[in-house]
Amino acid sequence: MAINKKESFTGKEQELSAFAKALAHPARIAILKILARHNECICGDIVELLPLAQSTVSQHLKELKNTGLVLGTIDGPRSCYCINWKAFEKFHSEFGNLFSSMKIKNEKACC
Amino acid sequence: MAINKKESFTGKEQELSAFAKALAHPARIAILKILARHNECICGDIVELLPLAQSTVSQHLKELKNTGLVLGTIDGPRSCYCINWKAFEKFHSEFGNLFSSMKIKNEKACC
DNA sequence: TATTCTTATCGTATATTTGCGATATAAGAT
DNA sequence: ATCTTATATCGCAAATATACGATAAGAATA
Question: Which has the closest alpha carbon to A56: A33, A39, A73, A31?
């Protein structure tokens, strides 16, 4: 029970769902927006802009880093994060592909 | 602890993350693709196309229905599902807005 | 060296998700 | 009326996600 069946799906489906999962929490969307807004890389200032504890924010950042949407480097005593635009672009275009490939077949609701 | 902090974020952030969550599992992406591929509404044939039990597929369909991406009607003894193109379009454009609004500010990675 | 500041990680509690089998429900067929 | 067929829901187990405080680790500073 509750065995992970995710591997039974195609690579693209797994990839897309992993991307979507990264955005599946408002805090992570907020973090991405903050990172985009501040041109320079922001570190712990993110914590001050969010209603979450420092450890929680760090966890969300780790998830975004794991999916590749965010890059991080250590800058002296602090950590510097920023958006990985390349991965972001890939995500965007793959979603566009999914949407348009779906629409090719059908456009009419039947229910 | 583990109190739900999702309400602390903006409506748009919550909405977008809810949409993303709907796509955050490969099975649900596969279901959407199946629904798009078959022009007419497909019911339990989805179960045969997926490596999941009937009850599990029904649950995923319910989630897609709850987020509004899928419509369902009862058609005699069977259920008929199809994509809610209107909601789908909204999702698509809102994601596009997020992406482009982020890119306006910055385009250069700094890490 | 001791202190402080920043961030990551650990441990823990709770909530949610995923998945299945069993059962209920509802309509058509016998 | 009973049986079959299709689907939804219930109940449960296991896995993951969310959130926090406490602590560790690493670098700059006193």
Answer: A31
